[in-house]
Specification:
The chain is an alpha+beta fold. It is built from five helices and five strands, in the order E-H-E-H-E-E-E-H-H-H. Strands 1-3-4-5-2 form a five-stranded mixed β-sheet. The protein is globular, with a radius of gyration of 15 Å. It binds a DNA duplex through loops.
Length: 145
DNA sequence: GCCAACGTTGGC
DNA sequence: GCCAACGTTGGC
């Protein structure tokens, strides 16, 4: 799950403990959100950072529900197509789990055998992407290195 | 700040 | 339904 740290970082999540992950306005990312189950773990990725990379881990504590910010004309996430009957956009609630001892930079993900098919590496501009169990383990090992 | 890669919109 | 124009994301 990507977030720009200047907007919301892993440290912000650590301070907030639980945060609604709103503002996803891409259908593929939304579908990936909807596939998440309570208790699932996710990587917290810092995008538009230097370096961009995986900063830590969070947990899904509430499964996908309507993102009503899409129905709020004053919200920066407003989408006039969204209605109460058809909210279109969803969000999940995530809880802080841990901050990695170091950021695992995108460049390292790209260079690590076993991660060449990781969706976040292949499809740069999708904010919520799936991670396989094997990829999960490799990234956690890199974080501890 | 640039720009590649996508996604979305809307005319036809 | 096609596709050109436009907007957004995010690495660099």
């Amino acid at each position: 799950m990507k977030s720009e740290p200047s907007t919301f970082s892993i440290d912000d999540l650590a301070a907030r403990r639980v945060e609604p992950w709103d503002g996803v306005r891409n259908y593929q990312a939304r579908n990936n959100l909807a596939a998440m189950r309570a208790g699932d773990l996710a990587f917290f990725y810092h995008s538009n950072a230097s370096p961009p990379g995986v900063a830590g881990i969070c947990r899904i504590v509430r499964e996908a529900y309507p993102d009503v910010s899409a129905q709020d004309p004053t919200s920066k996430y407003y989408d006039p197509k969204a209605t109460p009957a058809r909210p279109i956009w969803m969000l999940v609630d995530v809880a802080f789990v841990e901050t990695f001892p170091r950021i695992v930079p995108l460049g390292e993900l790209k260079a690590t055998p076993g991660l060449e098919d990781m969706v976040v590496v292949r499809r740069g501009r999708l904010s919520v992407t799936p991670v396989t169990d094997a990829e999960w383990d490799i990234v956690c090992e890199l974080a501890a290195r």
